[in-house]
Amino acid sequence: MDRAVLLLSVLSLGVSSQPITEGQRLFSIAVERVHNLHLLAQRLFTEFESSLQTEEQRQLNKIFLQDFCNSDYIISPIDKHETQRSSVLKLLSISYRLIESWEFPSRSLSVGPAARNQISPKLSELKTGILLLIGANQDGAEMFPDSSTLQLAPYGNYYQSLGADESLRRTYELLACFKKDMHKVETYLTVAKCRLSPEANCTL
Q1: Domains and CATH numbers, the chain
Q2: Which of 73, 59, 37, 55 lies closest to 175 in space, CA to CA?
Q3: Which cysteines are joined by disulfide bonds?
Q4: Alpha-carbon dihedral sign for residues 59, 65, 68, 69
Q5: What is the b/e burial string over 120-140, where b = at least 16 CB atoms within 10 angstroms of the residue's CB?
Q6: pLDDT per residue as tens digits for the range 15-37
Q7: Which of 48, 77, 111, 147 could pair covalently with 83 via S-S, beta carbons 3.0-4.6 A apart?
Q8: pLDDT tens-digit readout, 170-201
Q9: Could you tell me how far CA 176 lies from the centroid of its own chain?
Q10: What 8-state DSSP symbol labels residue 151?
């Protein structure tokens, strides 16, 4: 029994003494931040949807399924298999573009001021963290030769004066797309982080 306890102690010491690299630390922070953003996006969408009438929900969901998100112009993996085959740098680059595409629209989300005030700084912090990870992983490659190409057009006529029905549709679309994109970024960063552990199973 004493020998077994001693062996377990040695093994535990060996595991706990494994150094955590700066890259792993940055990835952990980035994954945690986008996870929190994804949860916030889910909550905001659920709260908005629950405030609608049943028929309104049905019609908006039908319209959204036929529509597309502004960020769909950003080329990204089409399924989990392509995601797993993508390089760490590619996943980071797509994540950066997705986060940046929300910096402006997020300021006009039709949510309470407390929630809206949380979103912008969280996006900015996450964008900075991803940029640091890109710098650490690009090995001299230039991922963003023209920063102007990263700026996407605003979401249609969302910033114009809208009628009641159109405004409702735009709010639904923005919140649904925000939730969708935060889920994408969380998936990409989680897979990229997993690549740092060769023994880990990164299957989605």
Answers
A1: 23-138+158-196 (1.20.1250.10)
A2: 37
A3: 69-177, 194-202
A4: positive
A5: eebbeebbebbbbbbeebeee
A6: 444 556 877 888 999 999 999 99
A7: 77
A8: 888 889 999 999 999 999 999 999 887 765 66
A9: 13
A10: P
Q: Is the pLDDT of residue 41 over 80?
A: yes
Token digits for 21? 């690299």
Tokens found for residue 97:
């573009």
Burial group, residue 26, by CB count within 10 angstroms (0-12, 13-18, 19+): middle
What pTM value is reported for the model?
Answer: 0.78
Closest C-alpha to 141, from 182, 88, 84: 88
The residue with tokens 């535990």 is: 12
**Mean of the per-residue pLDDT values of the chain:** 77
Q: Are 71 and 41 in contact (CB under 8 A)?
A: no
35 is known to lie in a ligand binding site? yes
Distance CA 155, CA 153 (A): 7
Q: Could you tell me which of 76, 97, 88 has the C-alpha nearest to residue 192?
A: 88
* Greater pLDDT, 79 or 98: 98
What per-residue confidence (pLDDT) applies to 154? 46
Report CA-CA distances (Å) from 33 to 19, 107, 155: 22, 18, 24
The letter for the amino acid at 153 is A
Task: Please compute, for residue 23, the number of CA atoms within 13 A of its CA located in the half-sphere on the CB side.
Answer: 16
